[in-house]
Amino acid sequence: MLVFLKENIVFFSSLGMLLTAYFALSIYSCGLDGDLESANANLISSRNALGDELHRQAKYNDVAENLKVAQEDSEALAKSRKAELNALRAILSKEGILADADRKSSQDVNSDLQRFIRLYREKLTQKGIKVKGSISSSESVPAFPTDGGGKQESFGFSKYDGQWPSFEVIEAREIYKQKQIIQRVLDLLIQAKGNDSSQPLELLSVKRELVGKEDSKRRDSESLSVDSLRDCLVERPGKIETYAFRFELLGRTTTLRQFISRLEPPFIVSDIEVHRAEGGTSEFLPTRGEVAPLEEATNSVPIIVDVDSRFVITIEYLMAVHAAPEQFLRTFYNKPDEEGRLRPPPDEISSFLSKHVFVMDPEDFGDLLDSIYGKEDERP
Fold this sequence. Notes:
Layout lengths: L1 H6 L1 H49 L5 H32 L11 H21 L2 E2 L4 E2 L5 E2 L25 H25 L7 E9 L3 H4 L6 E2 L15 E13 H10 L4 E10 L13 E2 L12 E2 L2 E14 L3 H8 L14 H11 L4 H12 L7
Parallel strand pairs: 1-4, 4-5
Antiparallel strand pairs: 2-3, 4-6, 6-10, 7-10, 8-9
Helix pairs in contact: 4-5, 5-7
């Protein structure tokens, strides 16, 4: 046996090596099977993850297109906004009733106000518009009692009728502006009334917005609370400034239409309330609706004619429109960072503002940003 082994040692050595290699490869193959199963599991997991990611990203396939549409809409809106602002500024530049306000002293305003109250009491009644405190003389010319009996119309300024507190000149000038605006409205009301005696008209009250610290201390029944009217007012803090007034009339819709049609910008009719006429002075007798006879009724004849109503009209007067680049930035980008420095708008928004809203050269807009927020390398 040994001789046989010795004679075939090469054979048996090779066989041993082959067996060793076989067992080694078998063991290695078993390990590869485990790795293969792990690789397959990883591949399946990766495929699932890829499918989930593709499904998630499918939601954003149209982002670029939507972003383009949104940018186009924003540019169109900016152009429209700019056109509106230019139109409003053009309107304001044409109106001259407030042109001399900055030249008035407090005493000038007091004198003008007293003259206005007395003049328009008589002027309105002479034009057939009844106001509080008016009486009729034997010549049928409206007049006012000289003994102060009864409350007389003061057009929103009753607390300054015959008295004048110590106003700062700035606040006095604001009251003068309101006086000018109310005077203009009354002139338009006179025009609307015309000379038609068949259209009775009575001014029941005038309320005005308070304009300052001293004026606010004297709140009365003629003071208009704008906080309760925010939903209907055009005024927007920091954007659009107006003065609000409320006129209460007793009359007919024909006169109302004539009056409203005359209130052109910078006047803005913010709200109109219509109520059934139930009051007025003793001389003003509201008529009840008269039904037209059946045989006279046609398509062009209203069923109800000559109906007297009480109208409450809220009117705003446009004072200013703020859209200057510096004021816009200081109003809407005024939040400080942790170090107390103002944060400028992001670069994308800055580019949009300069190009489409303010139509400024980028370098000029950059200089404006530098003046407000500091040099670019110093900004937060």
